[in-house]
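Extended Data, record Transcriptional regulator
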Amino acid sequence: MAKKVAAADAPATFEALLVLLHARMEALSPSHKRIAERVMVDPESVAFMTVSDLAAAVEVNEATVVRFASGLGLKGFPGLVALCRERLREQAQLLRRFENLENLDGDLRASAVAMDQTNVARTFAQISDSTWESAVRALASAPRVHVMGQRKTFAPAYLLGYLLGMLREEVSVVTGSFGGLTDDIRHIREGDCFVAVSIHRYSMETVRSAQSARERGAHVITLTDNPSSPLAVSGHDVFYLEAASPSVLRSMTAFTVLVQALAASVAQQMGRSARESLLEEEGLLSSFETYYAADGE
């Protein structure tokens, strides 16, 4: 593991712990890195694990878990658990969203519209020109583009893959279906572009795939929800999206708007090439009679 943190400099909050782990990730041993990933992605479960439980979950021995915690300046494994429980108390996201839904006054539809307008505005206000231009350039010019999102974030990931696939060649949506995730990752080459989409609670497979893609020399773009996300450390271009909602379900509206805007910018940058791809697509759709046509059309 990296140099031990002095007790006086030990993280006092879970957010501080995340910052420390992100900063030291590259210096961690493989076994300590697996522990760090589990803590970052699933602190709710770690909060109620014993040393033995966590060791078994990440396939290390118990002494390694204790050394990991002590190396962060914490008071052994109990200190690590205490920070994870603090996170659990602070978040309680699902419970709070249920309470908001039950206690919501007025029109839920109007509240959802207003909140999503705010989500979109805040999301785009955080994006720098340099980040946007770098991401669009990579999506337009990389030899291959791989897009990954699981569970709730599969929808915007699929949409981005679909739109880019209409504009250019060599675009794939990574699903890892039928146990084939490692096969998908094996096809990533240096110079490719890998897009990872995930929000709290973060998909371990998406986090690890983004890390692997970066290690393999791909340009990594991440779409996530806050700077403490484990995806933040892997991205060359990182987009933080707002997902607040007045109900129990987190909103994906800002994600949808962002991927459509990215695809539109890619089309603009590719110019004639994108236009030719779209015309070819339309020709194939017509020849295969893909869409319903009313009589006389």
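Summary. The mean pLDDT is 85.
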